[in-house]
Design goal:
By secondary structure, this protein is of the alpha/beta class. It has a single domain, classed as Rossmann fold. The chain is built from 6 helices and 14 strands. Strand 5 and strand 6 form a beta hairpin. The longest helix is centred in the N-terminal third of the chain and has 15 residues. The protein is globular, with a radius of gyration of 16 Å.
Length: about 210
C-alpha cells in the first residue's frame, strides 16, 4: 500500500512525511512517498494534500502541476481513494474560499472558507494548542482520540460546512472552529497532525488503516 503526499510547493512536507513514515512504521501503514507526479497520485492507495498559506495561492500551485488536478479528481472522486487534506489542503475541499476575494474550491464538501472572527481578546491567527471536541458517533479516523485531546493549530480562516454533519470535531476559539471535516472517502484537519504529537500520530495511523 502506498500513501502519497502531494508536493505542489505548499505545506511542511518534511515534517508531514516524517510523521506519516513514523505512523506507518509503528502501525503497519505501508509506504509513504512525497511526489509531484500525477501518475503516482493516480496509482496511490491513499492521498494526502497539505497546505500552508493563502487559499488562492495553494489552489494555483496545485493547478500549475500539469495533469495533477485530473489525476487527483480521478483517484479521489472516481475511484474513491481515501483522501486527507491538512490545513489549507482541507480548506480547498470547500465550495469557495473567501480569502482576498472569492475563489473556487474543489467543491467536494459544500461550504465556504471564511475569516476567523473570534471573540474580542483572541488574536488572529489562531496559533498553538487547543482542545478537540469530537462529534458522535466518532468517525474511524478519530478512533482512540478523546474529547479534550490537544492538537496544534495555525490558521486565520475556517471552514464553514453547509451541512453540520460534515463536521467531525470542533475546537473552541471564542466560538466554534471546525477542526476535522469529512464525508464519504474524504477527511480534512484544520490542525496539523504532523505537529500534534500523540494525537496527531494516532490520527495519521487511523487514516492509514481507514477503509471508507
Amino acid at each position: 500500500m502506498t500513501t502519497v503526499i502531494i508536493d505542489y510547493g505548499s505545506g511542511n512536507l518534511r515534517s508531514a512525511a516524517k510523521a506519516f513514515e513514523r505512523a506507518a512504521r509503528e502501525h503497519g501503514g505501508g509506504d509513504i512517498a512525497v511526489t509531484a507526479d500525477p501518475d503516482a497520485v493516480r496509482a496511490a492507495e491513499r492521498i494526502v494534500l497539505p497546505g500552508v498559506g493563502a487559499f488562492a495561492d495553494c489552489r494555483a500551485g496545485l493547478m500549475a502541476l500539469g495533469g495533477m488536478w485530473a489525476a487527483l479528481e480521478e483517484a479521489v472522486i472516481t475511484r474513491g481513494r481515501p483522501f486527507l487534506g491538512i490545513c489549507v489542503g482541507m480548506q480547498l475541499m470547500a465550495t469557495r474560499g473567501l480569502e482576498h476575494g472569492t475563489h473556487d474550491g474543489f467543491g467536494w464538501i459544500p461550504g465556504d472558507v471564511v475569516a476567523l472572527t473570534p471573540a474580542p481578546g483572541r488574536p488572529v491567527p489562531h496559533m498553538g494548542w487547543n482542545e478537540l471536541t469530537l462529534r458522535t458517533p466518532v468517525h474511524p479516523v478519530l478512533a482512540g482520540v478523546e474529547t479534550g485531546a490537544h492538537a496544534y493549530f495555525v490558521h486565520s480562516y475556517v471552514f464553514r460546512a453547509a451541512d453540520p454533519a460534515d463536521v467531525l470535531a470542533e475546537s473552541d476559539y471564542g466560538g466554534p472552529v471546525a477542526a476535522v471535516i469529512g464525508r464519504d472517502n474524504l477527511v480534512g484537519t484544520q490542525f496539523h497532525p504532523e505537529k500534534s504529537q500523540e494525537t496527531g500520530l494516532r490520527f495519521i495511523a487511523n487514516f492509514l488503516s481507514w477503509t471508507p
